[in-house]
Amino acid sequence: MITDELTDAIYLEPTKQAPEQARRFLSERLTEWDVDDFNGRLIVSELVTNSYVHGAGTIVVRVFRDEQNGLPKVEVWDEGANLPVVRPPNYASISGRGLVMVAALATDWGVRPFPGGGKAVWALLPT
């Protein structure tokens, strides 16, 4: 369960408004760092949408500098047990392309399961 308050995070209800709120939060942080937010807004929108559709509980979005390389990093946490899966292309489907897009736009990305349940899906943003 997600309980700790973080200063570099926003806590979102799992609603249709969550992706927009996450984009605004990320954009404000990247603007403070003088980093272009175009790809980051798309990436965070996809990750939050996945949490809203496939996850569970409160959605937590963190934006911070990666300790190893200083790149902007976004993490999206939720309490759902299911890990994200990159699906093979299905050109007849109207969904299922989000993680493919994240993989194409991010410098790197991955998922970190939490020992007590839930997960964080993260992406390093290009600068």
Quick summary of this structure?
The chain is an alpha+beta fold.
Question: What does this entry look like structurally?
Answer:
With 127 residues, this protein is α+β, with helices and mostly antiparallel strands. It has a single domain, classed as 2-Layer Sandwich (Heat Shock Protein 90). It contains 3 helices and 5 strands. A 5-stranded antiparallel beta sheet has the order 1-2-3-5-4, covered by helices on one side. A hairpin with a 6-residue loop joins β2 and β3. α1 runs antiparallel to α2 and α2 runs antiparallel to α3. The relative contact order is 0.21. The model has no long low-confidence stretch (mean pLDDT 89).
State which percent range the strand residues make up: 15-25%
Q: What is the molecular shape?
A: globular
Number of domains: 1
Largest sheet: 5 strands, antiparallel
The CATH architecture can be named as: 2-Layer Sandwich
Q: Give the ordered list of helices and strands.
A: EHHEEHEE
**Backbone structural class:** alpha+beta
Identify the CATH homologous superfamily: Histidine kinase-like ATPase, C-terminal domain
The order of strands across the largest sheet is: 1-2-3-5-4
CATH topology: Heat Shock Protein 90
The stretches of 5 or more residues where confidence is low (pLDDT under 50) are none
Cα-atom Rg, whole angstroms?
14 Å
What's the CATH class label? Alpha Beta
